[in-house]
Amino acid sequence: MKYRLGMPDQSHRERLAFTLVELLVVIAMIGIIAALLLTAVSQAKGRAQRTQCANNLRQLGIALQGFVVGNNVYPLYVNPVYSNGTFQGFASAWRSDLQNELYARFLIRVKESSPGSYPAEGIWHCPSAYRPASFPNQPVLGYNDYGYNSFGMSERTDANALGLGGHHVWNDLYYPPPAVNISEVVAPSEMMAIGDGFIGGNGIIRDGEQILWRTYNVTNYLGSTQRAYARHQGHANVVFCDGHVESPTLKFLFADTGDVALSRWNRDHQPHREKLSP
């Protein structure tokens, strides 16, 4: 049998070429694979950020426990009489007390963008939180704490507060003393202490706040509810008074009306449903 050498004929070349349908199928497959890879990378990044956030809160919890053990009381939300020496042993605010503990225990200094401003990096910064470009530049209007409730568990009420920041009647003077004694926290393993800076209620969540707080009076600020749900895929990281960290869902924190969910907000470990409405 003889074989003919030379270039393949036209029909053979046509059989080697891709048809348009085959090219489209290949392109579609590449697109699907790329989408799967991007999803996997995004999920891995999200898990890493949640882990870093939890580690940040764990260190803040250690600092809080150090202060409580050393003083037998919790830090004050703010100490408005700090300058005249009243309530000695306290700094000017909850955040400052924790920063002092962090430096004493871990030699961690927190850089502040300006004197007296909020910390903008390190363990005070949630890696999943970002300051929206649409936010005004004034710190008081949002994201002034870069992700965590830098002033601790507290509430703005016109009666005795049941959080950790002090026995205060909230008014224009921000007057929280005296401090909460360690014995007043009935169930430390069930009492939230520090977490992502969310204020929520009635299906709305405001992010970038100084306190972790459940209230009926909250507004959706420039898409804050959507940002809050996107930060940790519908969860929030929280450290408790005994130092352990959990990631409860935002619905559990701000919508659940069961005793278990509500009692975690109050140091007497009672649900206090009277606080859910005006």
Features:
278 residues
Give the secondary structure arrangement, pairings included.
Blueprint: H1 10-16, H2 20-71, H3 94-106, E1 192-195, E2 199-201, E3 204-206, E4 213-214, H4 224-231, E5 238-240, E6 245-246, H5 250-254, H6 259-263
Parallel strand pairs: 2-4
Antiparallel strand pairs: 1-5, 2-3, 5-6
Helix pairs in contact: 2-3
What are the low-pLDDT stretches, counting only 5+ consecutive residues below 50?
A: 112-117, 140-147
The largest sheet, given as strand count, sense and whether it forms a barrel, is: 3 strands, antiparallel
Number of helices: 6
Secondary structure class reads mainly alpha
Give the integer mean of the pLDDT values: 77
Strand content: 5-15%
Shape descriptor reads: elongated
Our measurement of the CA-to-CA distance between the termini, rounded to an integer number of angstroms, reads 99 Å
Please indicate the count of domains. Answer: 1
Q: Sketch the topology as an H/E string, one letter per element.
A: HHHEEEEHEEHH
Q: How helix-rich are the residues, as a percent range?
A: 25-40%
